[in-house]
Amino acid sequence: MEVTVVEREGKKPENKKTKQLEAFIRENKNQPLTTNEGVKIANDENTLTAGERGPTLMEDFIFQDKMAHFDRERIPERVVHARGFAAHGVFRVYESLEDITMAHFLQDPSLETPVFVRFSQVAGSRGVNETNRDVRGFATKFYTEEGNFDLVGNNIPIFFIQDGIKFPDLIHAVKPEPHNEIPQGQTAHDTFWDFISSNEESAAMMMWIMSDRTIPRSFRTMEGFGVHTFRLVNKNNEARFVKFHWKPVLGLHSLIWDEAQKLGGADADFHRRDLWENIEEGHFAEYELGIQVINEEDEFKFGFDILDATKLWPEELVPVRKIGKMTLNRNVDNVFAETEQVALHPGSIVRGIDFSNDPLLQTRIFSYSDTQIYRVGTNFQQIPINRPVCPFHNNQRDGAARYIIDKDKVAYHNNSLQNNTPYEVPPARGGFLTYPSQVEGMKVRKTAPSFTDHFSQARLFWNSMSDVERNHIFLAFSFELGKVKSKMVRQNVVNLIGHISHDLATSVAHKIGVEPPNVKESSETASSKALSMANTTFSPATLKVGIIVADQYDAAIVRPLLQQLLAAKTRPFIISETQETLNGTDGSTLQVDDSFLTGSPLVYDSLFVVSGRGATPHFNQKAKSYIIEQYNHYKPIGSSRSGMYLIQEVGIINKPGVTITNGPFKTYIQNVGKQRFWERG
């Protein structure tokens, strides 16, 4: 029911409901014409074509934004999206990049650009375990003053396929098999590996997904990539090819397979809990934005096609230049309203950033916006989490879940009743200008010859791995293919691996009961340090340390231990038999964070054993089970002399990464920063 305030003292009656809606009311008169993302439109009369009389190009995001909205102005459709988690933050560029781009948010180091980042899993449903082996989405919405820019990528720099027309096939293959809807959110099944072995272009991605990159330790220790080749365009209309990278400040770290599987049962929300808790505690997630840049005249000087999404640009050939930092510093207020309704779209670009002819990117430009209109609704850009921070005006009207109330009589272009507004904005005054790259050739459906080398970069990845990483890849293949029922598919995959490494393929073949391959192995001899996770930053900062304490503990040990752990920016947690308050020998007390029942050794990055005079047989039994699990996952373990009896009983005294000390705790904390001690064997 609407309530009207009675008119008094000559004031006009005020409708309270109208007052509430004022934030969503806009007037288009005398305003510039923009897309729904806030990008100013320079030409609303013509689609983008290959030549004046050529065909319309799929990358015309202005046309798609306008037409797709019109197509659905009377058709409300929506669908739920996959499992993901997100946070708000800010981005700041280190120095002006005006020499290579017009993008406003990349000009001024004093300018903070709001961002929203959604991390996600690709294969599973919303209820899937977060630690399954899977590619992770890393999608960033920049709310710039010139419109929204969405950098929609993954934690792996390449993809399975070269052309988006095969994307439905890939997803059909990776999803649960339709006859029994098994397995959920996993690749260890027949249809997925049948697709991989039948599509050689997936060879390099196959190696990446069998590496530890697909079982990240946390969102905060995960790289992100734009995957595709874009263009940066400067004010002189000079263009360069570019790839985008996110580099985590804490370094690149992963789980191990046994740990990841068990974590799915111990804490199915492990990754989101980690991000949420750290942001709440002030341990903000930080990433540096890097770019690789190739001049247009150098497009064809490499041994791979720079537009091929199944290929990366080796950092030794094209160095990554770090240009700014993103800090995620605020959790969402409502997961559905923000995380689930955020609509990210590779076609959301701003002046100074443009597309390349990457065929996978070209198809994503269409499919993502089309999906968002279906999933979230016709007016998805008007939802608060998707609204640009700059004004936006156009003649799009109605449709499902309309938020904006347009007061104008006119909703078309050209017009005379409203002085032809909203008006087009010339490029010289900020209107979007598509880079005039030359397009020519016959209409074809054909793979470019430069896209046909499928094994060199797969071999490059294998050459770059440490011994530990190679062993993990071997075990991953053995597990995944061991779940495949079809012996023919298993054999086909082993043959595909044989093109990359005969030794790896032969070892896997022995494990899964098929013949070694008889195929030609890639002759690629190069390697890249940037591809190995062994070459990353190691720090104890924000790592979760469990301190196992019994009643009547030695406060002279616990007090300085906690102080030094906090000084090293770790996150210490007290673990005990129950959640009752513990009493120290000096009359001090400790609040227990987790009991052995409610906690799990899997969620801690390290353990330190203090014990205490009140330790019971049950305490000792559970403490030893925690220690063994941590030891088997190669994690650092420390103990005071009062807790050393537990270390002795499990037989790990003097083992790598096991420290016995009553303090100071410098060596133990250094071990925490190393994170894994692979030499345990």
Report on this structure.
- By secondary structure, this protein is an alpha/beta fold.
- Among the domains are: 84-376, Catalase core domain (Catalase HpII,  Chain A, domain 1), CATH 2.40.180; 544-680, Rossmann fold, CATH 3.40.50.880.
- It is built from 17 helices and 20 strands.
- It is globular and about 90 Å long.
- The CATH homologous superfamily name of the domain at 84-376 equals Catalase core domain
The number of distinct helices, counting runs of at least 4 residues, comes to 17
Quaternary structure: single chain
- What is the residue-mean pLDDT, rounded to a whole number? 91
Distance between the termini: 71 Å
How many strand units? Answer: 20
What would the principal axes of the Cα set say about the shape?
globular
CATH topology of the domain at 84-376: Catalase HpII,  Chain A, domain 1
Major beta sheet, specifics?
A: 10 strands, antiparallel
**Could you estimate the helical fraction of the residues in percent?**
25-40%
Question: Which spans have pLDDT < 50 for at least 5 consecutive residues?
Answer: 1-18, 73-81
| CATH uppermost class of the domain at 84-376 | Mainly Beta
